[in-house]
Please model this.
Amino acid sequence: METGNAGASALAADWTSGRFVGRMLASDGPSPILVLHGELFDMAGAYPTVSALVEAGDFSGAGGRSLGRFDPAAITLLSPIDLQCVKACGVTFAVSAIERVIEERARGDSSAAAAIRERLETRVGGSIRAVVPGSPEAAALKQALIDDGLWSQYLEVAIGPDAEVFTKAPVLATVGADAEIGIRSDSTWNNPEPEIALLVDSRGTVVGATLGNDVNLRDFEGRSALLLGKAKDNNASGSLGPMVRLFDAGFGLDDVRSAELRLRIEGEDGYVLDGASNMAEISRDPLDLVRQTLSEHHYPDGFILFLGTLFAPVQDRDEPGRGFTHKVGDSVAIESARLGRLVNRVVTSRDAAPWEMGIGALMTNLARRGLLGAAQ
Model:
């Protein structure tokens, strides 16, 4: 199971004035929890899953069991979602669009990236930042870039009418606060992607937000966009947490739109990298990304949606011109003032804890605990 003790990770500084939903590992299995103005409630007796709790829309703590004041060091936090689909949007910032084109043109070879980056940033960077995706100006820029031989499938989703939306991971496959995150053992160019993720119910209502790391393999996706699945969906390759902050009078979508994310990577080799991502620079509004994810489909258990990242590390780590890539043992900390701090340690997906509690195992566990008769 995707366990982690919330020691380095933490809720926001103002957590005692907010409302949060998530999951903890109880003695007999995973339990949905609420933290309401500093008080912890075990909700398993009323709602066996976070999905059922969110679908009911009752975040008052009614039917739950109070465990007193919330102490994150005293419990084991899991990924804050369970039966929700895990979706993600990519290339939602101009910088990420440029970096994806670099990956594509370098064919996944980090050593070829520097010269391509310089040319693209000179010719494309400012233009991408200046246009609204899907607008007539964006269409004109597209034609100009085609004429200049600089067009790319990644620029299509950056400035075209349709956002990139993909499935990041299977249901129940994300890991939580202080758990290990995985990169494929055969990847040589990869990076974290610090993001905000929105929790959405089956009706398309956004109920809250959390921090996430959409771990990415740049070498795989760079060789072919058709390798996106292998680049994104691997054991322990996506983290969420520590908990989902629920929208209320004190926290809402405008706080997401203006949020600043900070990232710090600390390697066992002494390497340190600091970065930031400002949601104000996103090219598409979060609600538009939710709308495009919903499309004409129905998510009966809701979904979580990674919104994309501005952060793309290019600083050299070892050899000049080779850029950044993870090493086993890296500590990755993602922090935002209203959402808290999410910390994970990098291992290979092969060495990360095996993902064993899928839907069948969860249902068996809930049935054994007599929880499947709870309200749904």
Observations:
- The chain has ten helices and 19 strands.
